[in-house]
Write a structure and sequence with these properties.
It is built from 7 helices and 10 strands. It is α+β, with helices and mostly antiparallel strands. A 3-stranded mixed sheet has the order 1-2-3, covered by helices on one side. It has a 3-stranded antiparallel sheet with strand order 4-7-8, with helices on one face. α4 runs parallel beside α5.
Length: 220
């Protein structure tokens, strides 16, 4: 595997993001999140997703000019509208709000809902954000229907990620998982390497269980 220095990768990510209209500070933060995913070995949500992210910014699927707007608040609960903006920054903002609420007037917790946003990439990044602030972070999201429930061949449920992160003496305990045997990103990484999965990971287009990641992705 070719190695690239962290700073080199982050700077190149940032340079590219500025070409699609993202301002300097947001571009730097997005670049940081993508680079940190690569540094931590989460290749499925680093460079693997960067090209699609850039293209979504370029074609307007992601609105790079907006900021989240408050919809409603009730005690320790808030709902925000991501306004179709950058999913990574919207998610980081929402976790920042949850941390701030938890620390305000000794609330002890903060719960923030976020709608109308885009792919947040690595969910674990926001769990780690909470743990770095001395909080327990719990994050989850909805997604498109791409998996059959047990006993069915019809795609009815999403591969929703779930993250739980607990601070512990500088080495946080992080659970960042998909609801399937493998995440889509992992299937993409293994497929691009031309490798097979270590165990059966899904169904092909004929409904047969398979270790072939490309066949699983084609069936979605």
């Amino acid at each position: 595997m070719k190695r690239v220095a962290f700073d080199t990768m982050q700077n190149e990510f940032c340079r590219v993001l500025r070409t699609v209209g993202i301002l300097d500070d947001p571009a730097a933060r997005c670049a940081g999140l993508f680079a940190e995913n690569m540094r931590d070995g989460v290749y499925s949500h680093g460079l693997n997703r960067f090209g699609d992210f850039v293209e979504s910014c370029r074609n307007g699927v992601i609105n790079v000019k907006v900021e989240p707007q408050l919809v409603k608040e009730f005690g320790v609960i808030e709902q925000w509208n991501g306004c179709g903006g950058i999913g990574l920054l919207n998610a980081e903002f929402a976790m920042g709000r949850a941390i701030k609420i938890a620390r305000t007037d000794c609330n002890g917790m903060g719960c923030v809902g976020l709608k109308n946003t885009n792919h947040w990439m690595r969910a674990g990044a926001y769990g780690l954000q909470a743990a770095d602030a001395g909080c327990i972070g719990i994050c989850w999201t909805n997604t498109t229907r791409l998996m059959p429930p047990w006993g069915s061949s019809a795609k009815k449920i999403g591969n929703n990620p779930l993250t739980l992160c607990v601070p512990y003496k500088g080495n946080h305990v992080l659970l960042d998982m998909a609801m399937s045997q493998f995440s889509n990103g992992k299937l993409e990484v293994v497929s691009r390497r031309g490798e097979k999965l270590p165990v059966v990971g899904g169904y092909d287009q004929e409904g047969n269980l398979t270790k072939d990641p490309a066949a699983i992705l084609a069936s979605m």
